[in-house]
Amino acid sequence: MIVSVKDLNFSYPKRPQLFDGLHWYIPEGSVVGLLGKNGTGKSTLLHLLSGLLFPKSGTITLASHIPRERKPSFLAEVFFLADDIAYPGNMSIGAYEKIMGAFYPEFDSSQFDQILADFGLEKKVKLKELSLGERKKVFLSFGLSTNCRFLLFDEPTNGLDIPSKSIFRKVVAGNLTDEQTLIISTHLVADVENLIDRVAILNNGKIQLDADVLELSDRWVFGTSSNLPDEALHTEKVGTGYQFIRSRKHQEPQTPVSLELLFNAVLHNSINENSILQTQNSEVL
Amino acid sequence: MNANTISSRRVFNLFRFEFSKNRKLYLMGIPGTFLISAMLFLVIFYSNKYASSWGAQNYAVLYYAGLFFLTLFGIGYSFIELRDKRSAQLYLILPGSAMEKYLIQFLTRIVLFPILFTLLFVLGVEVSKSIFQISSVTIYGKSPTLVVDDLDVFNMLSLFYLWKLPILYYMFIGIGGVIVSIMFTGGIVFGKWNVLLMPLSFLGFTLLLFLTSIVLSWIVIGIPEDSSELFISQIRFQQPEIFTDTPLIVFVVTVLMWLAIPQFFLVAYFKLKEYEV
User: Does A70 touch chain B (CB under 8 A)?
Assistant: First the structure.
């Protein structure tokens, strides 16, 4: 596993324990959606992974790096896009690229130009003249162009308009290599649907569910029905019908994973990682 | 070379980041310091135009007063990126070791700022002196009597005037060094309140030392009957002397101050290394 979090404990001073024995493992080349309610510690977890915060106990490793050491060899391989990032307002996008790009050995200027063009931005504009969403696009473009091995995006679609969210998905999907691991923390679940290949749901200080999206659609059916379905793992009333998750039957067509439904199911303890195992076991039997 | 030792490329990148991010500070600070220096001396020369002379020692007083302000408002603004959460995040994850980031702060605040200040101060003195001398001949009907001594930069920087009393010389350097190092460290400890809180802490500590000597005097010698002498220490700190004109206590305090200087710089490094945001 390229990212390994073992028995992580963390709390802010004079605050209740945020993570209590958290375990999390991510395979190389994954695009992970880290989902959770507000205040569950998604951003804190990204801060811990990037070395901005230190664990109280437990270990975190990204490849062979220990983030808290903040060694340059690690920092050159990780790009953390904070939700509310500081920026040198007087710099133009071009100047920002020149100054900041020099820090990242794999930074690709032509890739940066291309992504900026995809977002419809010009390099001569000063950062302070941009709107929040436009600045977000600049930093997203920059982050992807660093070609860092680890990309940590905290609420990357915050501030983006609807067309930009679609471009964001296209740009991210088109600019990642198999060696790169991307973790996207968000509460805007729909924004990362069709982008992520792995989902992790953080709740009550632990990763409540961590699964491959393909595996989920292989095991479970996410659907809607006018009647309350039998054998459903989780149901939600929507309008006059129901949304449900249930085990997928043999040779039944796969359905796209509804992240929102899955998220709610996990939060309501309707399903967890064991549910996947149980589904697997029942199929084997 | 190991990727995690000091790399010249990363140090260069960090320097470039420092100058780009704080461009305003440098662009306004450099001409501003020169103008203030030149204007100050012009005002001094013109207001003393009928005095007999302006001695070379006076430059040193103003130079070290200027350095003191530079320490408060220049060196005291070390680690400016760590003052708010957002810029601290950006700064801490910039690919560079804590040592490299520390080095940039040290080289700019402790080395570059005083060098720039000295150059601008000398330039300010020379320009204002020239303006005063030229305008004195051409403008005034009655010639001014003020003779402005030349600025001897070596004497000013080497504190030549204190050489006659070596312990005073070393003590002055020690106090200066401690003030510089605590203001530098205060940038990472007190953040934006450093300019206020670190001098207050220093004054508080000095007051504590003073009161300790008074209370010790009351305990050892006794409380003076004359209330006007209540806060005058009766303990003779002048004795014993370790060298001629060098009281032991002054010598010890001076040595301790010199030893404290690198300690404060070390504290700043470890604070940076362990900084969380």
Answer: yes
B95: chain A residues, CB-CB within 8 Å: 72, 75-76, 103-104
Which range marks the domain in which residue A95 is found? 28-52+67-204
* Same-domain status, A231 and A170: no
Report which of A188, A285, A278 is spatially closest to residue A233, judged by C-alpha positions.
Answer: A278
B140 lies in the same domain as B247 = no
Same domain, B207 and B194: yes
Q: Is A54 on the interface with B (CB under 8 A)?
A: yes
Reference A31, options A129, A141, A135, A150; nearest CA is A150
User: Does B9 share its domain with B73?
Assistant: yes
Q: Which residues of A touch B86 (CB under 8 A)?
A: 82, 84-86
CA–CA separation, A212 vs A73, rounded Å? Answer: 30
Q: Do B95 and A84 touch (CB under 8 A)?
A: no
pLDDT, tens digit, 9 for 90 and up, residues A123-150 = 999 999 999 999 999 999 999 999 999 9
B93, B98, B273 member nearest A80 (Cβ): B93
- Chains A–B, number of C-beta pairs less than 8 Å apart: 73
Number of folded domains that form chain B: 2
Give the pLDDT confidence of A44-88 residue by residue, as tens digits. Answer: 999 999 999 999 999 999 999 999 999 999 999 999 999 888 888
Secondary-structure percent of chain B, ordered helix, strand, coil, rounded to 5: 75, 5, 25
Distance from CA of A255 to the nearest CA of B (A): 40
List the single residue in A with minimal CA-CA distance to B277: A52
Q: Judge whether A7 lies within some domain.
A: no
A225 and A199 within one domain: no
Question: Does A90 lie in the same domain as A107?
Answer: yes
CB atoms near residue B252 (< 10 Å): 11
Interface contact A73-B4, CB threshold 8 A: yes
By the 8 A CB rule, do A248 and A221 touch? yes
Low-confidence ranges of chain B (pLDDT < 50): 1
